Amino acid sequence: MKHPLAQTFVLVFATATLAVAAPKPAAFRPVPPSAQAADTLIRAGESHFAHLWQLTFGGQNAEAYWSGDGTKLVFQSMRDEYKCDQEYVYDLATGKVTMVSTGKGRVTCGYFYDHDQRVLFASTHLASPDCPPEPDMSKGYTWAIYPGYEIFTCKPDGSDLQRLTNREGYDAEGTMSVDGQWMIFTSKRDGDVDLYKMHMDGTGLTRLTDAPGYDGGAFFSHDGKRICWRTHRTADSLQNAVFRDLLNQDLVRPSSMDLWVADADGRHAKQLTFKKGASFAPFFTPDDKSLIYSSNWETPRGRNFDLYLVSVKGGEPVPVTRDPDFDGFPMFSPNGKWLVFCSNRGGKVPGETNIFLAEWRP
Q1: What range defines the domain where residue 242 resides?
Q2: pTM, full prediction
Q3: What is the distance of C-alpha 31 from the center of its chain?
């Protein structure tokens, strides 16, 4: 007869052995079955791209942002019968694309939150079911900041649509802190175009910027301690007068923008880029030590936008992409191993913008 302690030892040892021997689940590989291998579109000098896949094919597709678990993307697209952007969720496991907006008006800037149970986006559909008019380019290239934009939320299948903002003037460009506690967004509610943050129930509303000029496209760092955004600030009274005149027409001119960082409460704001042209779409690298962003600073009057890295301490930008056309809207996956971005590369027609997925090589 075995000693009881011996039996206990055998049982514990066997359990431990099984635990050690049990295979680990394979890491999710976010390459949908509908993706097309695109290593041939990796340009000379794009050493951070180990492999590349194209996820969309045709039309205008932009601002693709990851879910918290890294299995989905939310993005805006002009496709099918729709004449202006609508919001979609892309399931990377299956390749299924689901429209989550109403199909009316124009949308922008989607984002996941609430443990990926909901998405948010801005839409003009309550102001009008039609696409809002395009801005008058006779005064130069401008962006319209439509006063009909409000921020909405729904489930990832498009159901349970709810309104988050209800204020006269532009409310859009919303993103979330990683912990889901704060939404940061851009609004014209106080007469300028500034950054605000609030909880999802509308409490804690805080204005983060108050300098004259457009502030937008903000993101939180992964640790929630800092924010980054794009802006154009100047002490030049003539330039500020031009900005104010355009703003009165719900327009901004984005041809000159730089990147800034600040504490999450807006304090200790610091300019990071000092180049000509437009730098925009910043996102923190996984270690929060740098920003990846898009800029045309090498050809400031052209449309050749590339991705760059710049330290949050400042310094010269380091190129990531070298395609001779547009590359923008970069975002690292939650595990830092993948980069999603939008690009004109490989388009069948000039100006076609598609979503690309790169396996990131540090």
Answers
A1: 38-333+344-360
A2: 0.92
A3: 19
